[in-house]
Amino acid sequence: MIALYILLSMMILGALVAIEVRSLISSVVAVGAVGLGLSLVFLLLKAPDVALTQLVVEIIAVIILIRATIRRQLPGSPVSARPYGVLLGLGFAVLLVLVSLPALQEIPQLGHPYMRVAETYVENGLRDTGATNVVASVILDYRAYDTLGEATVLFTAVMGVMAVLRNRGLKGGEEG
Amino acid sequence: MADRREDGMSLIVKTVTRLTLGLILLYGLYIVLHGHLTPGGGFAGGVIVALSLVHLVLAFGGRSAWKRISHSGASVMEATGALGFLALALLGLTAGFFLSNFLPEGRAFALFSAGSIPLANLAICLKVGGGLFAVFAILTIFTAETASPDGGER
Which chain A residue shows the shortest CA-CA distance from B77? Predict the structure, then answer.
């Protein structure tokens, strides 16, 4: 439990470093550290599936981000130094906490979820689908529509990236 | 700078890459094929497969790597995965409804069990691996070497 809070504060620290640091590549590395911390948090919360996915996705995301940023090293993004912006943000944060206070009191203890829907899956997953990994039985059997939608989202995202970058590549290069 | 990058990294890195590339690819396939038994699955395994290809490109540099693997191959891989998943979903209609698990369940903890879940994992692996590698390939080609013959050919 205490490890979780240490990790969370390290992640917040990493995110702040990523925002404040001047060189883009250090920023990318700091974002990678945040993702690594998130992966460890998932592991602590006993979700090895999500931890594994988070870890490998973080690695490829950092590589892609480095690839995308290494060529144009911007001299640091200018952070707007409006004093009332901070106050406004803090005000909204306080407002948000006040409004969501009743809901926050209803949250179950960490590690003791309500398990209303999940109980069915945990109990019947092996019998219904034959998969010993409950996560696989959920994402590819019970909730396969979600996975189909997710795959479509990824497909569209890749298509969009290819279309946008191809356009710029054609303009930048001499040949088609 | 561009020439140095196309030559790839140092001999040490290249040698280590030769040794580890197959292991990483194998680990990714293991994660995919055992997705219904242990943590992992198509998404994580697909990313590891893509990472092994990214590893190759990073170590050997753009020009020599693109001779062995093409990014249009990655697009084909992704399209195969997407169509494969859709085909599995449609084959589910034979057992009653869209996306139903139409194959027999088999014995628990056996590699060939859980009906169509391993096949769906494989399709998702192809999709995710192909898609992420295609993004990486596009970024490498069009941000670094737009003028090179490999970049122009697309």
Answer: A155
ipTM above 0.90, yes or no: no
CA distance A112 to chain B (A): 21
User: Is the Cβ pair B47, A133 closer than 8 Å?
Assistant: no
Mutation target vs B (from A59, A60, A72; most B CBs, 10 A cutoff): A60
The tens digit of pLDDT for each residue in B72-84 reads 777 788 888 888 8
Residues in chain A within 8 Å Cβ distance of B42: 140
Among A22-36, A110-124, B110-124, which range has the highest average pLDDT? A22-36
Q: Residue B108 class from Cβ within 10 Å (0-12 exposed, 13-18 middle, 19+ buried)? A: middle
